[in-house]
């Protein structure tokens, strides 16, 4: 409501490869002079009543005001009770490091034990690598209350449920490009909302077959797929016009 106290986040995402299915996203806030660039692809596996999805890749958060870069990995995701009442949890270890400051963090997302235990638990440690000192520890729920304890004895509590949630703004469907997700998958989405799984499956099959035909055409013409917003650099992908190059 108060423009002087609000900031605008700009976000773009693109699937840059089909085999493997690599997705990239870039987000920036010019007012705060920060931006995030991430590439990730997934590996899925079935585990009885659950599906596990490993997130392979990394992101870089840049704080331009301080000249700092934080490289981070991503947790795995698990869809539980897929045949009854599904729910999702995160699991695994996430690493965060900043070469300039010498600080690093290890964040562990704990999956719920088969019997008892809490859901969405997370623990973390922040280390100053040059002195091998643990400067902060944290524990709680990643979607609930988190408590931070510093080596000075100070503690801080953050309740994520009280943080404001801002709705995202997207272009109207008629102004989106033909390859944008909401446009491309709109018929599948419509039938899913109607509960017609057979029709949604048919629309999905039709869309994927169309994409296979286009892929065969590119192979015959020896024309590689060209992403629109991201450029490959080494093993990663970088947004074509990032804030740090502006």
Automatic annotation (TrEMBL):
Keyword hit for Transport: yes
Domain of life: Eukaryota
GO cellular component term, pick one: membrane
Record keyword Repeat present: no
Xref: InterPro entries: OSBP_sf (IPR037239), Oxysterol-bd (IPR000648), Oxysterol-bd_CS (IPR018494)
Keywords: Lipid transport, Lipid-binding, Transport
GO molecular function term, any single one: cholesterol binding
Record Pfam families: Oxysterol_BP
Swiss-Prot/TrEMBL GO biological process terms: lipid transport
Family of the protein in this entry: Belongs to the OSBP family.
Protein name per the record: Oxysterol-binding protein
